[in-house]
Write a structure and sequence with these properties.
This protein has helices spanning about 15, 25-30, 60-65, 70-75, 175-195, and strands at about 35-40, 50-55, 80-90, 95-100, 110-120, 125-135, 140-150, 155-165. The protein is α+β, with helices and mostly antiparallel strands. Strand 3 and strand 4 (about 95-100) form a beta hairpin.
């Protein structure tokens, strides 16, 4: 398990997670858009995917959908199998170890990983799950879910998701585009419904 001496800082590349909202992005989110962008990762052929959206429910209502990793087969449509291997309380948040399998379209094989994450809860301010790869079918797999009140309104949640995942198998560009254009927006719509906002 990570103990702070193994390179795991629980931030999931927070430089990307903590980028500020500019006025144009803020306006798009306020209209209900799901905004997806990519950013290059030095030394990697695959970019980091960045998603911003608003869910019309308090962060305290959305957080259980992210925090309860053992329920991801229900809350995360792409997840086929999941097992929360351990959860240990810590001064900076729970440390959560998870084995998770993501379903891939035929003929690609499903992708399994074990990740270590830190779950941070600061009620009224921020909720975050940030993970890093321990082992599995990836060369890299790190990212974060971050939930904050949108524009200071505790009745609305700004969802920020970022991930850099590099499978050991080659993923055709068409499938990568499908994930960005359809699968991620569908995920947000699913979370909106589960949170009672859709």
């Amino acid at each position: 398990m990570p103990d702070g001496t193994d390179g795991f800082d629980g931030r999931g590349d927070a430089a990307a997670v903590d980028r500020p909202l500019d006025p144009a992005l803020r306006a798009r989110l306020d209209r209900g858009e799901v905004v997806i962008e990519t950013a290059p990762v030095p030394g990697s052929a695959l970019p980091r995917v960045l998603l911003d959206a608003v869910i019309e429910a308090p962060p305290e209502s959305v957080w259980p959908l992210i925090n309860n990793t053992g329920d991801y087969c229900r809350t995360m449509p792409a997840v086929k199998r999941v097992e929360e291997l351990s959860r240990e309380p810590g001064a900076e948040g729970d440390r959560v170890r998870v084995r998770l399998t993501v379903g891939m379209p035929f003929p690609l094989k499903d992708l399994t990983s074990i990740t270590n994450a830190r779950h941070t809860e600061r009620p009224g301010e921020l909720y975050r799950r940030a993970w890093e790869l321990e082992s599995g079918d990836y060369e890299a797999n790190s990212g974060a879910w971050t939930l904050t009140p949108f524009e200071g309104d505790g009745r609305r949640t700004h969802v920020r998701y970022q991930v850099h995942a590099v499978p050991r198998i080659r993923i055709p560009g068409a499938i990568q585009q499908l994930v960005q254009k359809k699968a991620l927006p569908r995920l947000i719509e699913h979370l909106r419904k589960l949170a009672g906002a859709g």
